[in-house]
């Protein structure tokens, strides 16, 4: 009876699809062809959600953005239409069943993300540009629902872990090879590195962030996952490709984020107490603030600018006197802080920074790449952006998410999970460390290629805490 019911749905949807296509073609209402396409997506999502989730993971590195002039918005194809369908299905599921994986949904991380979304919704209501904010909120809503909540249906099963990582890492490796081939054609220059990854990535910083997240994952497979010799050789090849891609992305923030993840790994391996790390960090910060005038004078003498020379490119990271990229970041950060001071509680509204920050720039802080046209990006910070757009509560919620990631990572390292599972879970944790340390200098959670990894990696940590650890306790 169940098969008969499913067949009836398939046949009914197919007939309705053909009728819609015929009518809209005959009347030349080609824009309305979106309706039958949407119906087909809805049917596929309803009948085979797991396959849609795997497809999303596999296709995201290859997705491209199509800009719709009428909507003044870009849509990631093929992923975002599927995400919209999955979001609708998730909402219907909650209304019908009244719950979604109770143990997973009751986890502190899940509750924090829900509060984060509610606050984003509220600040969209109070936004200086409500239409912009609600579009931004909707995109963030389906990212969290799909990549965090729905992906938990796949990640709760440990046997899916290898497949999960490779369904994104394999196509990402193909994109890196494509990028390297194009980059070689243009002489491996820094200038070419900013665009050779198009159309798959917007530019090199987003590309570098994605690669940095998967360097710990590929490293874990190459050095710690036992497999057949030829498969392990393949693991090392992929690690090499991702490392070369990361280096030639000329993304300093991504390079530094991998070093940050390495530092966190050393803290775990050496079993240094976290209160010791926090105390050391606080002491270092105090020393820097106390001696800031002298430090600023030293940094001002650094004249190295970003260039094709990798050595000079690294040292230019501390050039705050002549490096345009660094100076523009500082300009954006100061503008974000001024915006926060004017609207400290609810901010200016999600997604509005790029439209509102221009009046908050100071003439003497602007650079040759500064703009007043809302066409050159955001606050370049995963922390100051929410502070300006969603006020102090927005920043606190982001910090609460990051803090819980650290707590879960530490817990997983000290757990009794089997070797392979622990290695893969920790790889996801270190991948998140690269992203949120990179987040000090850039923010990409509005892009599907970053959001899929960030929220699904967080989902994996929570699944490990809720399900994997639960299995261990049950078997002990």
TrEMBL record:
A cellular-component GO term for this protein: membrane
Membrane-topology descriptor: Multi-pass membrane protein
Location(s) in or outside the cell: Membrane
Major subcellular location class: membrane
Protein origin, superkingdom: Bacteria
Pfam families documented for this protein: Wzy_C
InterPro entries linked to this entry: O-antigen_ligase-rel_domated, WaaL-like
The entry's keywords: Membrane, Transmembrane, Transmembrane helix
Transmembrane domains' residue ranges: 7-24, 74-96, 108-125, 137-155, 164-184, 204-224, 229-247, 253-270, 277-299, 390-409, 421-438, 450-470
Domain O-antigen ligase-related positions: 238-399
Protein name: O-antigen ligase-related domain-containing protein
UniProt source species: Thermaurantimonas aggregans
